């Protein structure tokens, strides 16, 4: 099991999970008694998925909270250890309810529940629905999950769904009402109608999560049917090549976080410009080793390159959102792209 040893990569929920696992039962019980069930469920989810956390991270966490504590060993967060802790501090019955949410497709809203449904199962369900219905569902899902669902739909249907998403403003209320009526029976949840994102942005995020082949096919088809929308989507999409717009400090931050093997595979299919954006921020020795690794790996499947590049792009977007790196646009106005 891989040990978590990069403190900056931890999310807020993961930091809270580390803190809870490092406290004694008495303190955990006091904290849980002042939390809502949904908060306990979300925190428990993070605790159960945490894996092994190095003692160095635990120490850094306590320093952040102004408590200088040095832990003697690593922490391991698993579903089993989390369940034992939960039931011990809040009771068997309430603990069972919390863990059901951790282990199954739970969420505050219908859309959070859908985000936890296997993409193939969801695609099989949606492919028999109207394209407008599918468009609303995909627009409401997390982009990464929506991309997987779209990739599992028939190609002709995917194109129709993209067009409906781009034109969703004029029909959104009726379609949302239809989706609510159709899905309420299964998920019994409150429909959130507050998401007013630009339709082009929603489509760009989803297409950005597709593999390169599917992305190219969809964009080529969209070019033929709606060139203006295709151009706008391209402007909103964030690709691996956009990493060349990161400043030196940002590239160095990425180099500290991304695994060397993943970076080598990603750069195997990158342009020379992007390769040197990374090489120029490495030591001479590190650059030489990376170039040797890339040359030694021989032919690499396009799918593996796409996956490696997508992983690095995901890391970069999170760092950008957190303000840890800046990704500038191609113009002279210094606009930040998130």
Please provide a written account of the structure.
It is a single chain. This protein has 338 residues and is an all-alpha fold. It has 3 domains: 3-103, Annexin V, domain 1; 110-236, Annexin V, domain 1 (Orthogonal Bundle); 240-321, Flagellar motor switch protein FliG, alpha-alpha superhelical domain (Annexin V, domain 1, Orthogonal Bundle). The protein has 20 helices and 3 strands. The chain has helices at residues 12-22, 25-32, 37-49, 55-64, 79-90, 92-103, 110-115, 119-126, 131-140, 143-151, 155-166, 172-187, 199-208, 212-225, 227-236, 248-257, 260-268, 272-279, 284-296, 302-321, and strands spanning 3-4, 51-53, 75-77. A 3-stranded mixed sheet has the order 1-2-3. The model is unreliable at 67-72, 103-107, 187-196 and 329-338 (pLDDT under 50).
Give the count of helical stretches.
Answer: 20
How would you state the average pLDDT, rounded? 75
Superfamily (CATH H level) name of the largest domain: Flagellar motor switch protein FliG, alpha-alpha superhelical domain
SSE run: EHHHEHEHHHHHHHHHHHHHHHH
Principal-axis shape: flat
| DSSP strand count | 3
Just name the CATH architecture of the largest domain.
Orthogonal Bundle
Oligomer class: single chain
Could you write a compact summary of the structure shown?
The protein has 338 residues and is mainly α. The chain has helices at residues 12-22, 25-32, 37-49, 55-64, 79-90, 92-103, 110-115, 119-126, 131-140, 143-151, 155-166, 172-187, 199-208, 212-225, 227-236, 248-257, 260-268, 272-279, 284-296, 302-321, and strands at 3-4, 51-53, 75-77.
């Amino acid at each position: 099991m891989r040990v978590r040893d990069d403190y900056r990569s931890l999310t807020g929920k993961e930091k809270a999970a580390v803190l809870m696992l490092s406290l004694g039962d008495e303190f955990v019980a006091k904290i849980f008694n002042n939390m809502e069930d949904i908060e306990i469920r979300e925190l428990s989810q993070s605790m159960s998925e945490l894996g092994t956390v190095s003692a160095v991270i635990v120490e850094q966490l306590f320093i952040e909270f102004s408590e200088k504590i040095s832990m003697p060993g690593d922490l391991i967060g698993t579903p089993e250890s989390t369940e034992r802790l939960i039931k011990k501090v809040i009771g068997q019955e309430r603990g069972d309810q919390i863990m059901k949410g951790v282990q199954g497709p739970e969420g505050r809203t219908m859309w959070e529940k859908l985000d936890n449904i296997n993409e193939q199962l969801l695609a099989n369900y949606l492919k028999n629905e109207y394209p407008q219905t599918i468009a609303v569902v995909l627009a409401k899902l997390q982009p990464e999950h929506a991309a997987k669902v779209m990739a599992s739909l028939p190609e002709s249907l995917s194109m129709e769904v993209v067009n409906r998403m781009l034109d969703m403003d004029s029909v959104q209320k009726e379609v949302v009402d239809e989706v609510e009526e159709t899905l309420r029976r299964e998920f019994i949840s409150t429909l959130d109608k507050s998401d007013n994102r630009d339709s082009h942005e929603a489509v760009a995020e989803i297409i950005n999560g597709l593999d390169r082949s599917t992305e190219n096919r969809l964009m080529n088809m969209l070019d033929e049917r709606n060139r203006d929308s295709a151009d706008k989507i391209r402007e909103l999409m964030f690709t691996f090549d956009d990493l060349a717009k990161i400043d030196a400090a940002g590239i160095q931050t990425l180099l500290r976080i991304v695994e060397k093997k993943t970076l080598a595979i990603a750069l195997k299919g990158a342009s020379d410009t992007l390769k040197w954006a990374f090489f120029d921020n490495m030591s001479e020795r590190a650059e030489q080793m990376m170039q040797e690794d890339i040359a030694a790996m021989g032919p690499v499947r396009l799918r593996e390159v796409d996956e490696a590049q997508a992983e690095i792009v995901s890391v970069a977007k999170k760092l950008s959102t957190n303000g840890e790196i800046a990704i500038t646009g191609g113009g002279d106005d210094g606009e930040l792209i998130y």
